[in-house]
Amino acid sequence: MSVDLRGRAAIVGMATAGTGEAPGFSAMELLGQAALAAVADAGLTMGDIDGVFAATSSHAFPTMSVVEYLGLRPRHFDGTNVGGSSFELHLLQATLALEAGLCDAALICYGSNQRTAGGRLVSMSEPQWHETPYHPRHPITAYGLAASRHMHEYGTTRENLADVALAARDWANLNPDAFARGPLTKEEVLASRMISDPLTKADCCLVTDGAAACVLVRADRARDLAAKPVYFLGGGAANWHRSIVAMPDLTTTAAVESGPRALEMAKVGREELDLVMLYDAFTINTVLFLEDLGFCPKGEGGRFVGDGRIAPGGELAVNTNGGGLSCVHPGMYGLFLIAEAVAQIRGQAGERQIADCDLALCHGNGGTLSSQCTAILGSEATL
């Protein structure tokens, strides 16, 4: 028998720190800044935090490192790391822990100084079997394969992928915190330096510093705290492979399972969503996830993103902060999807604020199109 988690927990504190470039700070120091700010946003103290959820790309034992650095003594902790989608999964895990009484205030946190520490894209977390003889440059080689296959099967073009990058930049230009702002044309995207055919530099996410953190409590407590609660309505996860060469179909991700699971728990339909936050590490991601989450048929994603459909003023608000392509991408991006959803639902997104934002989907991706985790967040009006 499944447990009904819809609306049982809420995000009551949210913060980011050091986004873009933060020279002189370690990954843990940036994480600490975000954590302190998120706890303060909730009107709580660090002494109130008795649950810790963390994943990082720089600490083998993330929760132990966080607990020591912040001086916490949690009753419950979880360092599940499934890549950039970890934090959407942590929302589900934290809600379960709160519902079970294992903790009363859960902190989810992440920090990275990837840009100022060197900005290397190659990670030892990548699989060292199967692919090593071919000397891939991970992760982009894997995503290039997926993009090439999608083009081969469905006629998707580089111009279609460029539409994703342009929409992200248009949203970033409305966000004063976005790292990459300014004019960008389709011609510039297409002429950008090729990195891994068919993906150019403009098809790739940023390499930035940054940290984010959020605090969850049970719903019955959320209304009494300082910030406007944003409720966890549903979550789902799916994982079919680790290495890209083991992916069953390069054009279909496990989001086809995680998305429906999250929507079913949340008891909402896609047509009800006001905001869609997708893990756009590369332009092909947005195309694949729009298809796999059911916003358009398989193979139609490239054409779906055309004509400004996902840009400001379009019919579907996607990645309103500018995404990993133009806002921020410090190695693992999933918690920043949540941060933007919270800002939009709270009505705190400034010039990029979308009207009447009550329901948001956050979809995280980990590894090389490997782990897929989806979360649905909503305002009090959705309960």
Account of the protein in words:
This protein is α/β, with parallel strands linked by helices and 383 residues long. The protein folds into 2 domains: 9-118 and 208-231, Thiolase/Chalcone synthase (Peroxisomal Thiolase, Chain A, domain 1, 3-Layer(aba) Sandwich); 137-202 and 235-382, Peroxisomal Thiolase, Chain A, domain 1 (3-Layer(aba) Sandwich). Helix content is 32%, strand content 19%. It is built from 12 helices and 11 strands. The strands form 2 sheets. A 9-stranded mixed β-sheet has the order 3-2-4-7-1-8-11-10-9, with helices on both faces. A two-stranded antiparallel ribbon has the order 5-6. The two termini are 22 Å apart.
Keywords:
383 residues, Peroxisomal Thiolase, Chain A, domain 1, 2 domains, nine-stranded mixed beta sheet, two-stranded antiparallel sheet
